[in-house]
Amino acid sequence: MKDISTMTWKETKELFSQGGLTGYLTPLILLAVGGVVYPLISWPSWVQLGSLEIPLILFLTFQLIVASAADSFAGERERHTLETLLASRMPDRAILLGKVGTLVGYGWGMNFSQLLVGWLTINIVHWQGHLVFYPLDLLLLTFALGLLVNILAASAGVLVSLRSPTARQAQQILTVGGLVAMFGITFGLLELTSSLLPSLGIVLSVTQLLALLLGLFAVIDIIVLSLALARFQRSRLMLR
Amino acid sequence: MNTAIVRTEELSRSFGSVQAVNKLSLEVPAGIVFAFLGPNGAGKTTTILLLLGLLEPSHGRASILGLDTRKQADKIRERAGALLEFSGLYERMSAEDNLDFYGRIYQMSASERRARIKELLMHLDLWDRRGERVGTWSRGMKQQLAVARALLHHPQLLFLDEPVAGLDPMAASRLNDELASLVKQEGVTVFLNTHNMADAQKLADQVGVIRHGKLLAVGNPDELRLKQGGPRAEIYGHGFTSQMVDALKQQPGVVNAEQSKNHLSIELRDGSDVGPLVHLIVQQGGVVEEVRRGAADLEDVFLALMEEQRA
Fold this sequence. Notes:
The complex is a heterodimer.
Chain A: H1 2-15, H2 22-42, H3 53-78, H4 82-86, H5 92-125, H6 136-163, H7 167-199, H8 206-231, H9 234-239
Helix pairs in contact in A: 1-5, 2-3, 2-5, 3-5, 3-6, 3-7, 5-6, 6-7, 6-8
Chain B: E1 4-15, E2 18-29, E3 33-37, H1 44-51, E4 59-64, E5 67-68, H2 73-79, E6 80-83, H3 95-105, H4 110-123, H5 139-151, E7 157-161, H6 169-186, E8 189-194, H7 197-203, E9 206-211, E10 214-219, H8 221-228, E11 231-238, H9 242-249, E12 254-260, E13 263-268, H10 275-283, E14 287-295, H11 298-310
Parallel strand pairs in B: 3-8, 3-9, 6-7, 7-8
Antiparallel strand pairs in B: 1-2, 1-4, 4-5, 9-10, 11-13, 11-14, 12-13
């Protein structure tokens, strides 16, 4: 655990030390779009966490994490810092899990911030005489789903980054792969809930649908994270 | 008698058809600076990566501090420090954070880290700049910091891969001086890869010469120089002839003599005098402008070994 937290310390320092405001610019833009602009456009649906709000929150963060994960190994390789890190006593798993953990924490923090800023925006701009809250069950499910989606984004990003010679190549693969995966999952679920399940006489509520998604992402997360752990081999990384 | 801290037996590594390290058998005693000399692509970096357990050998074995590089690589990396081909510093982070990160990696306590970082940065005259981003530093300063990072956790063995490569002569000389003083102060064994003869001559207690992955010679620099040749005289001028060279070869103090344009290179026996040889040259009509006397240096040894292997 101590090694993982050491890696997390370094990753966080690097993540937010990209030259003054630059390191904070991307998350700030994302917060402005996902926490201010969109909630205002979609009001009152935003506070009900409707069928478009949750995917949007998850998708924006997914893209942010995937873009950051692309840099995790390929970027270190390009900047020639990976070799020295691998020559240290830092265990393989700690390196990988430290990087994944930082990204997941970053993503989850962004999910939380988006929801918080969105809630504040709505309550300030559309004041109803009392505070309006998100439905608790959907809020908790969004957090849980956010965690799983962020683990997927970070693990897949790290896995691709491990095998890519450059951060740019990793980013290209992940951007395209991420879009395909998100659209695939979204349309697959739409098909499932609007045609397949009704034809079998099954109708899912939003809560049930989210629970189904939780299970699906949990399985995918375990597979992708296990793959990343299996692919992390010092000697292979040295030869890339 | 020192025990071997690095021991390799027929250590080999190939990449496809390229034999990067070829049956390398070597012993490096504890407490010395060992310089591994060789041209670019000789297999020096691959050797360090093999010794750190970062690459698997194709054949043979190696042990560091008595630990097997195949099975106990993690323990080796715990007890060794490394400055590889690149400084490996995080340029967006400050100098202090770079060192702090590696201090944490080596599980040093916060107070231990603080004290050690201060000690090393003060020694290298970088303490006042500890808060600056490393990316804004010169290459020389980065290399100094990388040396500090490699020594941070008091390693028993330090691997240095061309630490002064790419530095201007002043920065290189400064870093070499600092390295020598730190190594002495810390009492660490050093495995230094270099293709710079002057560095090897200045820093090393023992030298190994490698080319095409093969160890060509090993010994202390003086031994190697003696093996390569005894005292020599270099005579510059004009009017030198082949008859003159033959006459020089007949002299009792001369082992061999060679002529190239306006230069005579004479290999002497120990204790022989150059004066009579100059007299002979002048007598035969040669004009002597400059006479230099000395022993073969490490560069001569290196070049001769390269030449021998090529032949």
